[in-house]
Specification:
mainly alpha; 3 helices
Length: 125
């Protein structure tokens, strides 16, 4: 399988996981905020509940973005996918991108220049 095909497959699977995870995080935050307001604080005002649900929605989106990026980094590092994925997919500074760059550097053969093109001080005699 080529890097392009593997990257497309990885992105499609990660998108499905991201959508499911987003829904779960938002529902979890909404349930927790509802229980906190109704059971513990005994607030029955619908305006307060709607505001709490809006905050749960926004907080769920932000929390999901953080969790998703960490989950992707963990999966790429755990299963050593950095060398199989397109480098443009990997974030700058992520451990997966750094390890992929190091692996590429190790695979490159060293270029040996012919003696005729070397400057005088570098010629071996």
């Amino acid at each position: 399988m080529t890097k392009k095909a593997f990257t497309i497959l990885f992105v499609l699977a990660a998108t499905v996981v991201n959508i499911v995870m987003t829904l779960l995080v938002i529902v979890l935050l909404a349930v927790v905020s509802t229980l906190l307001l109704r059971v513990i604080l005994r607030i029955d005002n619908p305006t307060v509940l709607l505001f709490a649900w809006m905050l749960s929605f926004l907080g769920g989106l932000i929390l999901d973005m953080v969790l998703y990026s960490r989950l992707c980094d963990w999966v790429i590092a755990k299963f050593k996918l950095a060398t199989k994925l397109d480098p443009r997919l990997l974030r700058r500074g992520s451990p997966a991108r750094i390890s992929a760059q190091q692996a590429e550097k190790k695979e490159r053969p060293k270029t040996v220049m012919p003696k005729s093109v070397l400057p005088d001080e570098e010629r071996e005699e």
